[in-house]
């Protein structure tokens, strides 16, 4: 096996890490859009439609929900939350499932909020009874949860978590880090009563990196409007961005900072594709492929970081390597076979596991052999590395 | 006249606003690069080379100068300065030449610094004796200057300004907002002893929007390292970004937030083009075309916002419309002729002027008819609108 040409793109190894993912030809073509003014009507219409489509992707019909699409990495989403929805001195409960909770907690600290982390063992997630006890102990302005932890492949359950928060601490905002879940895991923003879901363009949504994407509920926007202190960031301030997002969605030119016009076109293209069939089918397809990957992993005698099926993400799989094998041994072998996986990211065990991303076009486009080739490459690669070590 | 096909791009009106500008075919092709891991060596090498090339574009040979390329709008550059180089309570002197100084001052205020604005009349810039008097009155941690004010077309003189600061207040950092100047105006970072120059990708550098680009001097980095308080932003924190930028430039994979891989490729492509001939020729060509535009404007009996030749930018021209004519009258006429200019941005006089951007490929590529067509369109358009009003 070597690199194959599965599209109009040059032959290249299949990128199967938990983001960035492979991109569709039409999306990459949109990236090369000719220069446009950010305040011209053709672009304003595209940006406005993009914001409206996001409402459908997040499944929110409340007109008071507020979408944001801002030039930046996914990380900027944390600043958007911490600088606008928390105030100095506020308490925030951060549910910890891996690497990303530590960073989100750091971000809150930067803006003066107190972040309390509720930790679970590696591969698990905080249990509802522990969350309930924590919520009863102190009044938290926000609770954050990483929907899919890219460092561990752990999936959190949002529906029951949100129900619990509403029962025990109804004013607490439920903030979902959906960087590795939006576009591949079910998220029913309205019916699950979520307050913030933040994500990035380069994961299951299938647009190149460079866009921070956030949906806020009516409750979240009211919390923002009731602030006693100004937001702690300038570039991430809702004071600056809310009028801009409202204007673009209402097809009115508006300026605070120049939007990344080509990336917005690419996002428009991929969201159009995502919404061209029912979201339920998209989520079902990701579950189906995830089951196939996880069955293959089990057949190879390998264990996942997340042992419980109900904790396992559907857009990625974090896999412990055989005893004594390290990522620098197996990853170059897979690359030679035309497949790119990612190494470990969770500091305590980074050298012991690899991550396989199965999201977006590699999963949805039945003509792409990416997933089957990756499973075969993994099987052959492991055997070759084992053999070479003997 | 209608839209013309001057490249491999679809026919479209020539974008001649002060950014985004027209992009070269090779740059737009780089935007469609296939998916790559942000920590793979092919991408790490491209990002590393990009950072090294920026040193040449800014004309700095001091290895302790620090380049940054971060996913975000040009506006993010203000946060990078205000959150990392100023501390709460610090005094900052903001030289005001238009719209952007007000916003930069707001940004400093967000992070707790006290911004004092030194204002000039519209179309002019603060004079050196006034700057000297201000510097003697109070100790300023930073002085900021907008090299080219996109709202007025006013050019500031950096060399003598920096010399003055070193003489009167040697520790004050000289911060240049070069959003509309880097790539079209001479900037000699080392020999003029500048401390920060910030810019955005979509102006004279010629890469689509979505990258904040900053160069910091050794003195600026020492000021950052001597901070007594942590930076006020998380996404814009040098604590997070300095190790990442150093690692990429040393060709080592590194992760804080996913870089916008396609935009980095496009920046690499355009910087390679910019550096393919001496920078002095590039600046001379921009001056030559600017002289031509300004002569044509004078011949039409129109006045510039910046009346003094030494105050006039070379990458754009801000032009007062004939008495009684407004941007909504002339701009659609120009659009029909295949040319896009921008309306006014300076709040007090926004309805009385238009802005003509002449930067990058429209100026450097002698095969492109953009500038000549724009001058003809302006002449014809003004006559038609005048006639229709009679």
Polypeptide structure, described:
The structure is a homodimer of 390-residue chains. Chain A has 390 residues and is α/β, with parallel strands linked by helices. Chain A folds into two domains: 14-24 and 278-389, Aspartate Aminotransferase, domain 1 (Alpha-Beta Complex), CATH 3.90.1150; 25-275, Aspartate Aminotransferase, domain 2 (3-Layer(aba) Sandwich). Chain A has helices spanning 25-31, 41-57, 76-84, 99-110, 128-137, 158-168, 218-225, 238-249, 261-274, 279-299, 327-336, 361-364, 370-389, and strands at 14-15, 66-71, 91-96, 114-119, 142-146, 148-149, 154-155, 173-177, 196-200, 211-216, 316-320, 339-340, 342-343, 353-357. In chain A, the strands form four sheets. Chain A has a seven-stranded mixed sheet, sandwiched between helices. In chain A, strands 11-14-13 form a three-stranded antiparallel sheet, covered by helices on one side. Chain A has a two-stranded parallel ribbon with strand order 1-12. In chain A, a hairpin with a 4-residue loop joins strand 6 (148-149) and strand 7. In chain A, helix 3 (76-84) packs across helix 4 (99-110). Chain A is globular and about 65 Å long. The two termini of chain A are 24 Å apart. In chain A, 56% of the residues are buried. The model of chain A has no long low-confidence stretch (mean pLDDT 96). At the A-B interface, helix 1, helix 3, helix 4 and helix 9 of A face helix 1, helix 3, helix 4 and helix 9 of B.
């Amino acid at each position: 096996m070597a690199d194959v040409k599965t599209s109009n793109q040059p032959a290249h190894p299949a990128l199967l890490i938990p983001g960035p993912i492979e991109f569709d030809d039409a999306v990459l073509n949109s990236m090369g859009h000719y220069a446009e003014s950010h305040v011209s009507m053709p672009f304003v219409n595209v940006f406005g439609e993009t914001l409206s489509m996001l409402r459908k992707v997040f499944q929110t019909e409340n007109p008071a929900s507020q979408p944001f699409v801002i030039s930046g990495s996914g990380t900027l989403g944390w600043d958007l939350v911490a600088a606008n929805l928390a105030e100095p001195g506020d308490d925030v409960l951060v549910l910890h499932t891996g690497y990303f909770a530590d960073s989100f907690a750091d971000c809150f600290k930067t803006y003066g909020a107190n972040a309390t982390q509720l930790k679970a063992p590696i591969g698990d997630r905080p249990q509802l009874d522990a969350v309930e006890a924590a919520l009863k102990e102190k009044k938290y302005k926000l609770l954050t949860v990483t929907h899919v932890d890219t460092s561990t492949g752990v999936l959190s359950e949002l529906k029951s978590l949100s129900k619990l928060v509403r029962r025990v601490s109804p004013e607490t905002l439920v903030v979902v880090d959906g960087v590795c879940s939006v576009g591949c895991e079910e998220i029913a923003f309205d019916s699950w009563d979520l307050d913030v879901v933040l994500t990035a363009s380069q994961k299951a949504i299938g647009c190149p990196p460079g866009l921070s994407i956030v949906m806020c509920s009516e409750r979240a926007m009211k919390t923002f409007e009731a602030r006693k202190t100004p937001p702690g960031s300038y570039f991430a301030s809702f004071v600056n961005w809310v009028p801009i997002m409202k204007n673009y969605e209402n097809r009115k030119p508006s300026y605070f900072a120049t939007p990344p016009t080509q990336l917005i076109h690419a996002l428009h293209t991929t969201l159009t594709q995502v919404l061209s069939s029912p979201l339920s089918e998209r989520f079902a397809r990701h579950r189906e492929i995830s089951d196939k990957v996880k069955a293959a992993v089990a057949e190879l005698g390998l264990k996942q970081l997340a042992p419980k099926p109900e904790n396992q993400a559907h857009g990625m799989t974090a896999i412990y390597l055989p005893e004594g094998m390290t990522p620098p041994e197996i990853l170059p072998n897979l690359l030679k076979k035309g497949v790119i996986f990612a190494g470990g990211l969770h500091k305590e065990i980074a050298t012991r596991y690899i991550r396989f991303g199965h999201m977006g076009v590699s999963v949805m486009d039945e003509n792409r052999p990416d997933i089957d080739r990756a499973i075969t490459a993994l099987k052959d690669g492991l055997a070759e590395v084992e053999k070479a070590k003997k």
